[in-house]
Amino acid sequence: MQACATLFVLIVLAIFGTASIGVLGETEGVPGEGVIETEAPISAGYFTADTTVIPAGGCVTLSWSKPGAESVLLLPGNGPVGYQEAVGATGSTIVCPSAALNYVPGVPVDYTLMTTYPDGVTTTEIITVTYLDSISTFTPTPIPIGMMPTVPPPLPPITTLPPTPDVTPLPLSISVHYQNFERGFMVQLAGQDCVYIFGTSPNEGILMPDPGTGYQYCTPVAGLPDNTLTAAPPGLIAPDGDFGKVWGYYAWVNEALGFATAEDFYYDGVIPPSERVIAGGVFYSPVITLPDGRQLYCGSRGATASTCQLR
């Protein structure tokens, strides 16, 4: 019987050849004949930070690129509850964790990028920023086996701590739109339909919607047409968006500021602390902290009306 089985196998090999023995349909390189074809994955892009360890009060530049995204949201871990900022599919922003409303000294801060694609897929990426003073340099010394203490050490004596000083509320953080010009800058706070225009020549100070009148420091944007003055000298830029509307509509604004020297950008700004109250009020009200750390204040009383200053 065994001889018959062996003879049958030899006959099969002689007829079909040895290549027919094995898994059928695995013809290499021929689509549809046992080869499973898969589409190349869509690039996930990137979400990076120029550093994740900073000194107290330091800032970080976050950058991202999400090709093909339908929507991209940036969520600061220590921002207001539920706060999220819609951003473009590609971009960057400067964040200063210690300036946020809910910042806790020494506690790392998470920044989350949530990306949604047209097919409904959502990805979440997190970058954690740590402060130098929160990184421990302590290295524990191991205790040899058999030398572990059997009696707990005595508790240290109770020390009476001094009274806790009054806690100063943390400054309010807000998204800010900013652009530099040849002779000044424009700045717009999130949620405001107006633009602060600050000129540096011939005299440093705020520019009014109608120069030299009233307490209205922020120039309204509603109703202004888009900027049509697009020609700019080499190396300079004609602004667009809300900045372009104000700059293109008011001749005295573009004459005072000149052209933009760089593209506009957004950053997490901080509203400076209020001044000390004197005789029932403050002389200047805080507006916003600029990207270079200077603070913009504008007059709040008759003696300081129509004036603003950088500190």
Explain what this protein looks like in three dimensions:
The strands form 4 sheets. Strands 9, 10, 11, 12, 13 and 14 form a 6-stranded antiparallel β-sheet that branches. A 5-stranded mixed β-sheet has the order 2-8-7-4-5, with no helix packed on it. The protein has a 3-stranded antiparallel β-sheet with strand order 1-3-6, with no helix packed on it. Among the domains are: 88 residues, Sandwich (Immunoglobulin-like), CATH 2.60.40; 98 residues, no CATH class. The chain is globular, with a radius of gyration of 33 Å. About 10% of the residues have low confidence. It starts with a helix and ends with a strand. The protein is built from 3 helices and 17 strands.
Notable characteristics:
single chain; 311 residues; mainly beta; Immunoglobulin-like; five-stranded mixed sheet; 17 strands
